[in-house]
Every structure is written in C-alpha cells, then in structure tokens.
Design goal:
The chain is mainly α. It has one domain. 79% of the residues lie in helices and 0% in strands. It has helices spanning 3-7, 16-24, 33-44, 53-62, 67-91, 93-103, 109-132, 137-146, 151-210. Helix 7 (109-132) packs across helix 9 (151-210). The radius of gyration is 17 Å and the shape is globular. 42% of the residues are buried.
C-alpha cells in the first residue's frame, strides 16, 4: 500500500463497537434492522460518521444463518453510497466542500492532498484499501469524483473491498457466533489491516506473474 494511503488513516480510535453501541444496536431488536443497515451503509460512504459493521454484527449475532444476507445488504448499499459520494465530488464539490471540511469527520485539505497523491500512484489500490480497512472510505469516494478517477475503477475497487470486509465479518459470525463478536470487539481494526495487507500482496503477486 502506498505511503500516501497509509498516512490518510486516522489516529487510533476507541473500539468502534463499544463507542457506537448505544446509538446503533437498538435497531437490531426491531423489524427495521435491515433497512437501517442499508441506510447506514449507504450514508457512511459519503458523509455519515458511523460504520455499518456495528449493526451488521449485532444483526448477524442474533441470526447467524442470515449473516451473509446482512453482508450483502451492507456491501451493495455501501457501494451505491460510494457512487453517490463520487457524484457529490464530481458535480457539487465547489458548493459543498465547506460543509464537508467543517462538519464531516475525516475531511480536510491535508487529507485531500494525500488522497490525490495516492490516486496518482494507484487509484484502484487506494480505493480498495480504503474500502476494506478503517481508512475513511468516504474521503476516497468523494475525492474520486473531485480528481476524476474513472467511475468504473471506483465501483470495482469498492465492490471488492467492501464485499471483502463485510463478508469476512459474516463468515466469522456464521461459524463462531457470540465468540466472534467478542473477538471482533477487541481486534476488528487489526484484523482488517492485516487482511488488507494480504490482499494487496495478492494483487502485487498477480501483477508480477502477468509480467
């Protein structure tokens, strides 16, 4: 992963599951859990600060057999939200930039400069890394529109990264249930970073073999 991508990662945060439990988890006990998951996944890709993993894990723990269904909801809604973020950057950035820089966590002129540098290096890997890890994905989706990254690159990299992240969570929950929840509460960010490194290594290996 390029240094520009790594430097765009936020400082270590307190555990995301514990931080957001009081706001998000009550949705898991209502009939509106799945729609709420879709809405949060969509909105988090452009402006919303709460990651959908929290609600996805809660829903999956309550119904492990539906873990992959919840992962699919998260992935599809998140990629669609990423496309919405792309068009915010491509069409409305001049009038909306002050709102994002002032009110949306992760947005700053410094971060945008770092993302632009990452896009000049390898836009696909930059978006994939942001989609898979705790790096703020929303910054990359909007910046993709601002810096005119091809929409197809955003969609493909986002689909792979977001699906990999959410289906990984689903697989762990499906097989290990409540034990998995306790593990993810403690090691979620470390696990995604390690697996992202493995994924990037796989892409580099494929590129080497092709040449």
């Amino acid at each position: 992963m390029s240094k520009a991508v790594e430097s765009a990662a936020p400082a270590r945060r307190e555990n995301i599951l514990r931080r957001l439990d009081p706001w998000v988890l009550p949705w898991a006990d209502t009939p509106y859990g799945t729609p709420a998951l879709a809405i949060i996944s969509f909105a988090e890709s452009s402006f919303f600060p709460i990651p959908p993993d929290v609600l996805q894990i809660a829903l999956s723990v309550s119904q492990p057999r539906r873990s992959y269904y919840y992962a699919a909801v998260s992935a599809v809604a998140s990629v669609c939200g990423g496309v919405a973020g792309y068009y915010i950057g491509a069409m409305f950035w001049t009038v909306m930039s002050s709102f994002f820089f002032n009110y949306v966590p992760g947005f700053s002129a410094e971060n945008f400069a770092k993302v632009q540098g990452a896009y000049h290096g390898n836009a696909f890997l930059a978006i994939f890394a942001a989609a898979f890890t705790p790096i703020p994905y929303k910054v990359f989706t909007i910046a993709a529109g601002v810096f005119q990254v091809p929409l197809g690159t955003l969609i493909l990299a986002s689909a792979l990264g977001r699906s990999g992240r959410f289906f990984l969570v689903a697989t762990v929950i499906f097989f290990f249930g409540e034990q998995a929840k306790r593990f993810l509460e403690k090691y979620f960010e470390l696990a995604t970073l390690v697996l992202c490194a493995l994924g990037v290594g796989g892409f580099l290996a494929i590129k080497y073999l092709v040449h």
